[in-house]
Write a structure and sequence with these properties.
It is a single chain. By secondary structure, the protein is mostly helical. The protein has a single domain (8-503), classed as Sodium/glucose cotransporter, CATH 1.20.1730. The chain has 20 helices and 6 strands. It has helices spanning 2-27, 29-32, 36-41, 48-75, 77-108, 115-122, 129-161, 165-214, 217-225, 264-271, 281-289, 296-324, 332-335, 338-346, 349-387, 393-415, 422-446, 452-473, 485-502, 508-516; strands at 235-236, 249-250, 253-254, 260-261, 524-527, 532-535. It has a two-stranded antiparallel sheet with strand order 1-4. Strand 2 and strand 3 (253-254) form a beta hairpin. The longest helix has 50 residues, at 165-214. It is globular. The chain starts with a helix and ends with a strand.
């Protein structure tokens, strides 16, 4: 009976959370649907707190509360810790190097409201070749990304209530889909703010609760030191597995072999995750929508503080979890449930419901952003940019919503296998987007000689190297075992530089625009036809 009552209270807490999220979606629906600009970037009126927390909440997804703790639980500090450090450094550099420049340049470059649109207008690509390629890349990798978020929903309900994974995954997917469909960008940003706060709270509560349960930091450290390489940054723990790939358990203990070396190449490979930020559309669109470039410094401080503390908590939860429930999970995919299981053990039912809503918060905030960006890229850059140049805002938004349906269905297809590891599904999409768009974003903002041909070469090189490296080269191991984002990012950068140098320089109008974009009044949007600036109301 207690268990049924407990499940009811967990469900009640999650239900209240859902109602709040969907209410926010409907509140913003009327304003968001007034124009494509409002629907896709909120009319560039978003303040610094909402910008910072929505950028980080949409970026982190279920990866933060499930993927990262699962990795730390299974093999110790090295993989998860160096990834977290790379992501924290990448977050800081992205806000420092890209945010202000992108906010200013997207306004000057024809008031671009999508990332592919900015690339095309930055290079005066009238045929929209660049934006079409970019939109297709976004569509491909975001389908995978959305799938990883739906995996999170399925695992959550399956672990909490023992309900069927596939049914719960589809139910979670439908809820995300509905509030994105109705509310547009502003509802996504507002709910992201709520979700960012909830994720932060959930991580802190579960970490402190787990440490208390284990009897403090000293007890945890003493236990984990006995596992070879578990707490080392230069070695990695190696679970002993049986023929089925499950970790061997003996006399209530999880069995480990000798620690494996974790050399400089592995560290660089995991730190390279940070490079992905320069090409993440769901983060870059936040920079484009902030009310004023002058408010970016405040946003940067909030965002970096949130990321550093959240990442620390996520990795620590995995490590402490190994001391608290050492034999609970036999595979890394299963270990991604460590946060949920600890929440159930440590917290009263209603509180557990609030905390695990943080996982839903993470996956919902991310998948809604991915859906919206995929929809905006196809509708704005392929439909209006190439197929029907005189399309009305209303037609563009209809196409965007049709795209949402397609990505939603494909995401369900990707997520249907319940043994999917969230960490590996995310790592593939992250590398694809980071390598395709990261180098191009930096070159577009910093090197005036970058041209249209270089931009196309960079995007295609990044995408192709990620696909080839991930599937054909990385399995060879050794020096080739590098995370595919690093070689793809470097080769894409080389392609942009070499092709731009070997082809004709950009036309004078492009160079003039580049020379003056940082001087433009940052709170004004150019009305290109009239050649004048029109202020936006706060």
């Amino acid at each position: 009976m207690g268990s049924m009552q407990g499940n009811f209270l967990v469900l009640l807490a999650m239900l209240i959370y859902f109602v709040v999220v969907l209410t926010i979606g409907f509140v913003y629906a009327k304003r968001s649907n007034s124009s494509a600009n409002e629907y896709f970037i909120g009319g560039r009126t978003v303040g610094p707190w909402l910008t910072a927390l929505s950028a980080e909440a949409s970026d982190m997804s279920g990866y933060l509360l499930m993927g990262l703790p699962g990795l730390a639980f299974y093999t110790g500090f090295s993989d998860a810790g160096w990834t977290a450090i790379g992501l924290a450094v990448g977050t800081y550099l992205n806000w420092l190097l890209v945010a202000k420049r992108l906010r200013k340049y997207t306004v000057v470059a024809g008031d671009s409201i999508t990332l592919p649109g900015f690339y095309s207008r930055r290079f005066h690509d009238d045929k929209n070749v660049i934006s079409t390629i970019a939109a297709i890349i976004i569509l491909v990798f975001f389908c995978v990304y959305v799938g990883s978020c739906f995996v999170t929903c399925g695992k959550l309900f399956h672990t909490l209530f023992g309900l069927d994974y596939a049914t719960m995954m589809i139910l979670g997917a439908i809820i995300v889909f509905l509030y994105t469909l109705v509310g547009g960008y502003l509802s996504v940003v507002a709910t992201d703010f709520v979700q960012g706060c909830l994720m932060f709270f959930a991580l802190a509560v579960v970490l402190l609760g787990s440490l208390a349960w284990a009897g403090g930091v000293e007890n945890v450290a003493t236990f984990l030191k006995d596992i070879p390489g578990f707490l080392s940054g230069t070695q990695i723990a190696t679970p002993i597995v049986d023929d089925m790939g499950n970790q061997v358990m003996q006399d209530g203990e999880a069995m480990f072999g000798d620690a494996a070396e974790y050399g400089i190449l592995s560290i660089v490979s995991m730190m390279a995750w940070g490079l992905g930020y320069f090409g993440m559309p769901q983060v870059l669109v936040r920079f484009m929508s902030i009310r004023s470039a002058e408010e970016i410094k405040i946003s940067r401080r909030i965002a970096v503080t949130w990321v550093v503390i959240s990442m620390f908590c996520a990795v620590a939860i995995g490590l402490v979890g190994r001391a608290v429930i050492p034999t609970a999970f036999a595979t890394q995919s299963a270990a991604e449930n460590v946060f949920i299981v600890l929440s159930q053990m440590l917290l009263p039912a209603f509180m557990c419901g609030v905390v695990v809503s943080g996982i839903l918060a993470a996956s919902m905030s991310s998948s809604s952003s991915y859906l919206l960006i995929a929809g905006s890229s196809v509708a704005e850059n392929i439909f209006r940019g190439v197929l029907k140049r005189d399309a009305t805002d209303n037609q563009v938004m209809i196409v965007a919503r049709i795209t949402l349906v397609v990505v939603f269905l494909f995401g369900i297809f990707v997520a249907y296998d319940e043994n999917s590891s969230i960490f590996y599904v995310v790592s593939y999409a992250w590398a694809g987007l980071g390598a395709s768009f990261g180098p191009l974003t930096l070159f577009a903002l910093y090197w005036r000689r970058t041209n249209k041909q270089g931009a196309i070469a960079g995007m295609l090189t990044g995408t192709i190297v990620v696909l080839v490296w991930h599937n054909l080269i990385r399995p060879l191991g050794g020096v080739f075992g590098l995370y595919e984002l690093l070689p793809a990012f470097l080769l894409a950068s080389l392609a942009i530089f070499v092709v731009s140098k070997l082809t004709a320089p950009p036309e004078q109008a492009v160079l003039d625009e580049f020379d003056h974009y940082m001087d433009a009044p940052d709170d004004r949007v150019p009305r290109m036809a009239a050649g004048e600036f029109e202020a936006i109301d706060d």
